Amino acid sequence: MRIRGHEIRKQVLANYIILSLLCSYLIITTSINIATTIYPLLHSVPIQATNGCNGRPEYCDRTYDNITQIATHGSAFYGILPSQNQNFGITTQLDAGIRFLQAQTHRGPVFGELKLCHTNCLMEDAGALEDYLLVVKEWLMGHPQEVVSLLLTNGDFLDVGAFEEVFSKAGIIDMVYIPKSTPARKEPRNIGAQWPTLGEMIETNQRLVIFLDYGADTAKVPYILKEFQYFWETPYNTVDSSFSQCEIDRPELSPQSSPSFVAEVKQRMYIMNHYLDTTILGMEVPNRRDAKKTNALSGDGSIGAQAELCQSSHGGKKPRVIMVNYFDVGEVLKAQSILNGL
Question: Which residues are catalytic?
Answer without folding.
Answer: 73, 118
